[in-house]
Amino acid sequence: MRLPSLDRNILSIALPSIISNITVPLLGMVDVAITGHMGDVAVRDAMPASFYVSAIAVGGMLFNIMYWLFGFLRMSTSGETAQAFGSQDSFSQFYILVKALLLASLFSVVLLLLSPLVRDIAMWYIHPETEVDALARTYFNICIWGTLPSLGLFVLNGWYIGMQNSRIPMLVAIGQNVLNILASIVLVYAFHMRIEGVAYGTLLAQWMAFIVAILFCFKRYSSLWKSQRHSLPSLGVLWRQTLGFNATNRQHFSLFLRTLCLIVVHFMFIAAGAAQGSVELAVNTLLMQFFTIYSYFMDGFAYAGEALVGRSIGAGDREEYHNLIRRLFLWGGAVALVFVALYLFGGDHFMSVLTDDVQVLQRIGTYLPWTLLLPLCGMASFMWDGIYIGATAVREMLISMAISMLVFLLGYYTLVPLYANHGLWLSFLAYLSCRGLMQTIMRRKIFS
């Protein structure tokens, strides 16, 4: 049976995005596997493998936080480009990309200049063992030179999605991760570079992915480049427009604050688990894998919402806009129910694959029922995020996230003291539900 055109459009963007997303944990697992065997590398001064694994964990966390904060480069570019695509405004499509890349380059220079301070403060706060500290600094000092391609890929991926094309980001992501894995293995095991090999493998893959993404842009959209490049203002004017207090930069700031709220929730969740002991922390870390895997799939449909909702708003097509919302929620609801079923019938088995610690597995069984509610409570927030980004209604996103963060904090300080880890999970589910509820209430402000 042939799907309706609207559903085909949704899946044509969602499925490649999902494939791109699921390559991320694969790379993380390979990095851990490589560093987990570094103690066996045939060099006389090799340290225990646990030091390398810990250093990768610390260094990776620092970059995750830094890059997470600049996720607005992808989101704002995606929504604005989708609207320009819908209105068939070729100049705006090209102009948005150029301005966003300029802004990414500026932020990259700032991060490079501040990197020694960021590194030292982070290491002082985390305070790892001396050997881990030295290895993590080595990893950080190499990988920081990948800031420009990383932020540039945020922009390009957002622009491609706005142009209704998620296949190129998928191909680039797959190529980047394959190259990263191969380069790291060769540098570590053939050249005995140890943690430097993993770092240089990551750096090489980042730059190659960025270059390939730009080459795809020139090839796929050569007519856009040729027709619009002479319409751009001078470089000085471009910089003034890029840095001015305009609507785009207000969106950036709102999305930046929204990300800060998100980080607060996730870090307080981790901290609350750690405060209850290593077993509860391990339990929460493993159970959050349910939410992480689910988010990879839901983000794919959120990206489809960004692209298609932005296009319909740019084209002024209200009927398609409302039909899109209905179809997106139908797909989102179907995916949520599938994950509930998977967690219900396969959750125990999945946890036993991740760990064989009997004490942890026993405690996990106590909290598994909460994970069945994760897909249901989180579905609406994922769908609305994509819709709001496509509509460039980021102020409303910030408001909903801020209120939801306050709901989490209220539960954190009232329910956790009373019900311990159960109170923490209840607070997190209330936070997810509140995000979806608030965005549902505010939806008419976008496009009634």
Q: Fraction of residues in helices? A: over 70%
**What is the overall shape?**
globular
Q: How large is the radius of gyration?
A: 22 Å
Tally of DSSP β-strands? 0
What is the domain total for the residues?
A: 2
Strand content: under 5%
Mean pLDDT: 88
Order of helices and strands: HHHHHHHHHHHHHHH
Short description:
The chain has 448 residues and is mainly α. It contains 15 helices and no strands. The chain folds into two domains: 243 residues, no CATH class; 204 residues, no CATH class.
Describe this structure in words.
The protein is mainly α and 448 residues long. It has two domains: 1-243, no CATH class; 245-448, no CATH class. The protein is built from 15 helices and no strands. It has helices at 5-36, 49-69, 72-86, 90-126, 130-143, 147-162, 167-190, 195-220, 222-228, 235-243, 247-275, 278-314, 318-354, 358-390, 394-441. The longest helix is centred in the C-terminal third of the chain and has 48 residues, at 394-441. The chain is globular, with a radius of gyration of 22 Å. The two termini are 33 Å apart. The model has no long low-confidence stretch (mean pLDDT 88).
Per-chain topology:
Blueprint: H1 5-36, H2 49-69, H3 72-86, H4 90-126, H5 130-143, H6 147-162, H7 167-190, H8 195-220, H9 222-228, H10 235-243, H11 247-275, H12 278-314, H13 318-354, H14 358-390, H15 394-441
